[in-house]
Amino acid sequence: MSTVLRVIGVLSIIGGIISGFVNAKSYSGLEKLLGRSVDIPFQWSIALTWWVSGIISGIIFFALAMMLDKLDNIEYNICELQNSTAKPISPTEKPNYAAKIPNTKMSLDSAKDYKMKSLD
Questions:
Q1: 22-59: string of b/e by CB count within 10 Å (b at 16+)?
Q2: Per the confidence metrics, is the pTM higher than 0.70?
Q3: Cβ(6)–Cβ(62) below 8 Å
Q4: How far is Cα 112 from Cα 70, in angstroms, rounded to an integer?
Q5: What is the mean pLDDT of residues 15-26?
Q6: Which terminus of the chain, N or C, has fewer Cβ atoms within 10 Å?
């Protein structure tokens, strides 16, 4: 999927550059309205608009492709970590989850005669 997004990004940049050259040299339908060939100067504002929009959309597609690559890498690393740390449990053996929990009961005798100070 990330390669498809990269290809779309490249096509977007190339299409923006080509469209900038084509649209900056011609007004839409001006020759047809006048009925003759018109010498039109190169319109830099139109060209820059197409070029910048093509480059920005290409960068967005490249960024999405990079995010998918990073996400695939994270998923692979998590699966490798789970496979390396997990011990297989036999179907007859039940895991003892209570043995993993530490004893959290503590005595409150040390806090029985505690007095709050002004800095506390």
A1: eebeeeeeeeeeeeeeeeeeeeeebbebbbeebeebbe
A2: no
A3: yes
A4: 53
A5: 89
A6: C
